Amino acid sequence: MVKRYLPLMLFLLSAALLHGCEKKTGLEGRITDAKGQPIPHVKITALQDTQVSGYSHVEVETDTEGRFRFTKLYPKSDYTLVINSEATGLRQMKVKSGADNSTTSLPSDIIFRFVISPDTVVTDTRTGYQWSPDPNTPMTWNDAKKYVRSLKLGGFTDWRMPTRAELRTLDGIESSFPLNDCCVWTSEAHDSRRSWYFNVYRYFDDLAYINNNSYRVLAVRKGR
């Protein structure tokens, strides 16, 4: 009887020994907006830079408090965290896992200033302004005014063209911000032929003829 079950017993013993020898370490952190509010349901993927079978690709998701925790990373290994969701857009960051059977906490929260709603309204959590995505169509100043007046994005009807001062608040915008070119019309007319535009990336304003169709439009509203 013992001989009959010996192979099974040896297999179970080997499996137990292998499980006991499995290397693993934890990594935890938190994702928030610029005011420290948690961003839930964000997928984070840990990609091991030098791959070890079983440890090279691990996924978790933030909970309602914005917290996430990896429990089975390979110890003392370099990983790239890939953060990607509709709310945050895409970001990557390098981390190093800790020693075997330990849990390492990131030194600070991962902060996303701009948060995108399911209906694509972009909220600047630092200023409270809400922005519509660039429709990816350059247009004249008058066409930009018409576009904004007809906009009902997110169910809101109070969208308007931004002032130069409002566009200046977009300093240091992230790659996830939905603007497809540098220069945006403002609401400020200089005279009957010219209006102000603002270069968001190089951070200056200048005048352009209102019939110039080279500039973008970003509608803005003040969120609650």
Describe the structure.
The protein is α+β, with helices and mostly antiparallel strands. It has 2 domains: 90 residues, Immunoglobulins (Immunoglobulin-like); 107 residues, Mannose-Binding Protein A, Chain A. The strands form 4 sheets. Strands 1, 4, 7 and 8 form a 4-stranded mixed beta sheet that branches. A 4-stranded antiparallel beta sheet has the order 3-2-5-6, with no helix packed on it. Strand 10 and strand 11 form a beta hairpin. It is elongated, with a radius of gyration of 25 Å.
Write the layout of secondary structure elements.
Blueprint (H helix, E strand, L loop, with lengths): L1 H20 L3 E9 L9 E6 L8 E5 L5 E7 L4 E8 L3 E8 L6 E3 L4 E3 L1 E3 L5 E3 L4 E3 L9 H9 L14 H5 L14 E7 L4 E6 L4 E6 L10 E3 L2
